[in-house]
Amino acid sequence: MQEQAQHGPAGEPPEPGAPVPENAPDEAPRPTSAGGAAPNAPASPPTTGPFEPEEPEKPEWRGVERALLSMRRMVLLTTMGVLTLATALPLALPLGPAWALFALPWPAVAAWGWYALGRNWRSWRYAERADDLLISRGVLWRETTVVPYGRMQLVEVTSGPVERRYGLARLQLHTAAATTDAAVPGLVPAEAERLRDRLTELGEARSAGL
To answer: How are strands ordered across the β-sheet holding 132-137?
Structure first.
């Protein structure tokens, strides 16, 4: 009863002059990490998602004209036909027709070359990007050449007699390093001239910015 009179009922402050217990807390307990963050705790910095690199530029590939395939097959058949006659006639005339069979390898080479030229023609393609030109070709061993616009020194368009017969032109690229020279055959003259003018303009602009 005496202790209750000193401290008053539960939940009420003690009377004036009443002794304060030594173990009384000075302030309300601070919440721990189990019950929440403590007051005045520094706010955690906002978290961001994982770094996503920019997607590389996807080249827009273009193929060469089908007339290039027709021209090369014509050259192949003409060459193999001449070799067949040059092998068969000298053997067949003095020795007999049976000796003309020794000329059969040339038609076999022509048949294989007809198929191989078709695959090689389909492998040729080129793509214009913002900073360079890509040229890809090859079947068993694929090769892709990257020609930076700033490295090009000369761009020319050539067209031989056989190419003119089929309405074709060839784009030849010359760079500072001879090992990176490249060419794009089987283009119509209008496309070859457009590429020549555009690549020359881009090459001059990139060289001026270096």
So the answer is: 62-63, 125-128, 132-137, 143-148
